[in-house]
Write the structure tokens for this entry.
Amino acid sequence: MKKIGILFGKEDTFPQAFIERVNEKKISGIQAEAVSIDMVQQASPTEYAVIIDRISQDVPFYRSYLKNAAICGTAVINNPFWWSADEKFVNNAISEKVGVPVPKTVILPSYHRPDDTDENSFRNLKFPYGWDKITEYIGFPAYMKPHSGGGWKSVYRVTDADDLFAKHSETEQLVMMLQEEILFTEYFRCYVLGGTNVHIMQYEPRNPHHLRYVRDGAPVAKKLLALVEDYCIKLNQALGYDFNTVEFAIRDGIPYAIDFCNPAPDADINSVGQDNFDWIVENAANMAIERAKANKPGQMNLTWGSFIKDQVEANVSAKKVAPKKKASPKT
């Protein structure tokens, strides 16, 4: 029996619907359930072939449990090693490298010094810092948000330099990034499963949370939808996410990737609506079943992004072709 587990926290509607849908399919040798953890022993495998992770971003104990499970052969969705390493600012840089447009963005030092540091810890930062250069590059209005994620927490719209400095002073030890505002005519939020399976949803981020998913939006040009889908696949293939959402703001016909680091995205029926909920439950169940069938016990069964794999392969190839040093003549 290959078990599919789902690890979750406060959410209610998606986890149970996912479990029920997998089991309704009655696939021989495959069963889904809520993950149950009793003891976590190093290098000891779990009972799960696949685990869908919906909560480890908030619970470090779970993140370590999942890494240990992955080392021992569980296919964890999403890869807990990459999820621990990635951040929105770095993902923006990768997006540029793979040809997906993103807003102009810079990273800002934290307003308060991190614990156990003093002024000597920052001797490599120029003083005064290049604020004039930053504001000239980004322009106003702009958005300031945590560089490593956090949904819509600690997100500020700033209108000028004084407003930026005032709001930056509220961020304490958070490392923020400053991003140009994209005045959009259309906005999409897209589920992406398995790196290639895309579901595009019209979205209005300026509405209250429960009203952001547009149920009766105007028709969208097929060419634009095809470009959004292509960018979704490029990003998720590069980053290696199995389960993610990507948000695009459309300016002058160009989709700008605004937020694409959501490995435990909203899947609550009360916010996404019945049609979107049905899609994510059905397709997540199918993906988990396929990963369970493909699982090879005792081996690493994680997804790694092409950006990382390409860099590793390039380095390995470079070492293979590097000329060998001639041995020094004996004297």
Q: What stands out?
A: Residues 87-101+183-260 form a domain with the D-amino Acid Aminotransferase; Chain A, domain 1 fold (CATH 3.30.470.20). The mean pLDDT is 94. The first helix runs from residue 13 to 24.
